[in-house]
Every structure is written in C-alpha cells, then in structure tokens.
Amino acid sequence: MKPILTILSVLLCFPLFGQDDMLSLLGEEKTSDFATAAFKTNRVINGHSIENTAKGVMDFKINHRFGTVNGGVYELFGIDQAYVRFGFDYGITDRLMVGVGRNSYEKVYDGFVKYRILRQQTGKRNIPLSISYMGNIDYKTVEWNNPVFSGDPWLRTYYTQQFLIARKFSSWTSVQIMPTWVHRNLTATKAEKNDIFLIGIAARQKISNRIAINAEYTYAFPNQLALDIVPTLSLGVDIETGGHVFQLMLTNSNGTDHRSFLTEANQKWRDGGIRFGFNVSRVFTIVKPKPML
C-alpha cells in the first residue's frame, strides 16, 4: 500500500511544478530564441533600422542620391546631379553602436549613437517587440550669405532622437515604427517650429534569400513646418552579395542626413520629385571575437 500512496503523492504534486521547473529537473534549461535579421542592414533606406552592427565590426557606407527625375532629358532625369554621403558605423558591443559621416548635400557632418533596449524573443522569455534608441546630431558647414548667422556654430546644429520599435512577423516580413523628435536651432521662417514631432513607419518583405523590398514613410504632425514641406516616402530593394549589401531606392528626400529627409522634403512623387539613389554597405571585422572555451 505504501508504494501506491507514494506514487499517487508524486503524481498529485506534478501540477504544482511549472514547465520551466520540470525542464530544470530533467537537466534541460529553457533557452531564448532571438529574432534576427528583421532588416538586412542597420538602415532601412534613409533612416535607421532596428539592426545593430555587431561588436567589433566596422560598417563602411556610401549613400548616393541623384537629382529629381522631373529634370527631364536635359538633366538626364537627375543623373547629372548627385549628392554623396560616406560614413563609418562601429559596434562597440552587441547592444551599442556609434557612427559618423559626411554628406555633400549642404556639407553636413553627422554622428549618432544607437542602443538596443529590448530584443524580440521567444522561449525562456517572450518579448514580442524589439526596441532601440537612436540619437543623432547634424552639423551644417555650407557657407551662408547671412553674416548674422554664418559665425554661430550653434545655429548650424540639429538634433534627432528616435525610438525604433520593430516586430519580425515571419522570416519574410518585418515592420518598424519610429516616434521621432527633431530639434532645429535655426528655422527657415519664424512660422516654423524649432521642435518637430514626427511618426515614421518602415517595412521589409523578403523576395528570396538575397533580395528584399523595403518601404519607409515619415509624417510630421501639422502646424510645425512650412506649407511646402511634404512627408518623405521611399521605396527600395536590398540585394545581398557576399560581404556587400547593395540598396537601390526611389525617394523624395533631398539628402541623407536626418534634418534633411525628416523636415525638408519639398518634392512630391506625383510631380516627378523623385530621386533615384543607392546605398552600399561593406563590413569589416576590426576586433575578432574571443573563441568559446
């Protein structure tokens, strides 16, 4: 009788144990399964994606934007004009990355820091979203005709802060939302606001293992910018070729610095105010990870 009572007692106690406890008793600790590669690079098109450059890796970027296609044959549909940005992004840790760059459009220097707060995962912890913070500074060095402003570096400085909130719904589809704040020390007119609040949305749809389609849209809330400023809409294609990621895109943004594509787009798609462009990304391992013992 005693053996039967002992077995019954053990069986009755089983519901008191959670699944994690049972796996622990069996020596099978539950692990986390992290979502990876929601986007192919740390940029969607113009703006940042949820992705970070890996620890010890340098990402060299070249961003090229031509003129608007409504320039017609005389401007070869924008090919005669070009703006170029080159930059270096570096992963300090797997959560923290920094970067600097220089844009030929209005001769802007920029720098940023991006920190991964949460990472989408299942298993030991169920977190449905990835969240990162990105802070950026743009400094415009183009010569100004107004002598009142030309000598004041503070008036040439612009700040951007974003939260990147993303979810990878499947191995093929990812969506990201970007609440954004831009502070401009100097505005074009007195009617414009120094502090601009925007909301952005981006998406990626894989077509194959090496090709994906991206879309990016940013909307500024009303009564902050000049009347001729329009939302930025960009469409692109990612092509992965070994250590390179080649991005082709169409966009109505003027430049690739945050101040420009977030608050200064004044060309409409329906009027032919579209620029063809491309991004090239090449990664180099600067610090090799230590081997696992």
Question: Could you walk me through the main structural features you see in this protein, from its secondary elements to its overall organization?
Answer:
The protein has helices at 2-13, 19-25, 147-150, 258-263, and strands spanning 32-34, 57-68, 82-91, 96-103, 108-118, 121-123, 130-140, 157-168, 173-184, 195-206, 211-220, 232-241, 244-251, 275-285. With 293 residues, it is mainly beta. The strands form two sheets. Strands 2-3-4-5-7-8-9-10-11-12-13-14 form a twelve-stranded antiparallel beta barrel. A two-stranded antiparallel sheet has the order 1-6. Residues 1-27 have low confidence and may be disordered.
Task: Write the topology of this structure.
Elements lengths: L1 H12 L5 H7 L6 E3 L22 E12 L13 E10 L4 E8 L4 E11 L2 E3 L6 E11 L6 H4 L6 E12 L4 E12 L10 E12 L4 E10 L11 E10 L2 E8 L6 H6 L11 E11 L8
Antiparallel strand pairs: 1-6, 2-3, 2-14, 3-4, 4-5, 5-7, 7-8, 8-9, 9-10, 10-11, 11-12, 12-13, 13-14
List keywords for this structure.
293 residues, two-stranded antiparallel sheet, 4 helices, disordered N terminus, Porin
How would you summarize this macromolecular structure in one to three sentences?
This protein has 293 residues and is mainly beta. It has helices spanning 2-13, 19-25, 147-150, 258-263; strands spanning 32-34, 57-68, 82-91, 96-103, 108-118, 121-123, 130-140, 157-168, 173-184, 195-206, 211-220, 232-241, 244-251, 275-285.
